TrEMBL record:
It comes from Cnemophilus loriae. Residues 16-142 form the Acyl-CoA thioester hydrolase/bile acid-CoA amino acid N-acetyltransferase domain. This is ACOT1 thioesterase. Keywords: Fatty acid metabolism, Lipid metabolism. It comes from the Eukaryota. The active site is at 233 (charge relay system), 327 (charge relay system), 361 (charge relay system). One of its GO terms (biological process) is fatty acid metabolic process. GO terms for molecular function: fatty acyl-CoA hydrolase activity. Belongs to the C/M/P thioester hydrolase family. The gene is Acot1_0. Residues 205-412 form the BAAT/Acyl-CoA thioester hydrolase C-terminal domain.
Amino acid sequence: MAPSIRLSPAARSLFDEPLAIAVQGLGPRQQVTLRTSLRDETGELFQASARYQAGDDGELDLARCPALPGGSFSGLEPMGLLWALQPQKPFWRLVKRDVQSPFLLQLEVLEGHGERPGRLLAQAQHERAFLRDGVRRVPVREGRIRATLFLPPGNGPFPGIIDLYGIGGGLPEYRACLLANYGFAVMALAYYRYEDLPKELKEFHLEYFEEAVNYMLQHTQVKGPGIGLLGHSKGGDLCVSMASFLKGITATALINGSVANVGAVLRYKDITIPPLGVDLKRIKVGKSGIVDAVDALHNPLEGPDQQSFIPLEKAECCFLFIVGQDDHNWKSEFFAVEGSKRLQAHGKEKPEIVCYPGAGHYIEPPFFPMCAASMHLLFGKCVMWGGEPKAHCEAQIDAWQQIQAFFRKHLTGKPSGTPSKL
């Protein structure tokens, strides 16, 4: 019997779902190398490999068989061949631009454990998809709004969420559509560097975001009376500002967000919040030329920088802070703790703070490979994001459950019983 790869699900799975990988038909205790490859939409190649030894029966099940030292990872890691994928081009981050097409994952079984790959024994392909069957993708161009709304299958109405990404701009849709697969109506909202929106990070007007909130609140497929906000990085402090000043926000989840306004002036009616100051002298540059900017921002508790602290005590919503404790972009844990102190000092409910040791800045949906460093638009240089691959992967899996449980609880009133694994 020739060796073959057995996958479950067999041909296609959602990107954030586990994939069971096994090899059958090998010789007893045969040594093999398993390799995965994936090309992003720009053609850049991501690869991972691991060394294994088959059982006495010639079977190799990654859920039961630990990887041996010498590959991209070792130990019992059923999903290691996915989370350990690394770009062949340095400092390149895996993103999904067109969520309507899947990523194509290639799996190969190669003979032996040599530095150079041995003979090819078996191969398989698998689609990692972003949209569950029946989820509708609706481009939104109403008034000034530039967004995409994802609606789950069925009649609704569904709990509604607005999803904001960070400083990269554009309109990333992959987190929003993956969340919509679980019964949420999710709007991926662009706010700059997209179509006719501002090209530069100079000033933002909260009225634009208010338009998006009102669109969601009035939508027949969105369950009221309020909506949720989900923001990462710069998107996080925009969500804090929205929650603080706008009506109709019930729950706000931040992934490594700031509670001070960062990077650009924020205006709303007659209110102006200046950006938090930056001290470029506190930026460290390593031997490899990678920038570590973790100490660059001023302290929003001191001097004139206090004006940058967003008055989140005005918010009428619950907060969840997801924190990577090895975030090198800025001090996410400090921001979460100070936000919590401020809320409690004003008699507000203590927010949920979930901290992940060994997790960096880019806490993405599950099984996105960790990006340790990549180009930063503001610095124009390669910046360190932090994280340790295995711990970061585990954080992404748990945070994804925490975020869904938080929104389910506060937007539908139903607890979903997903205790933290960490």
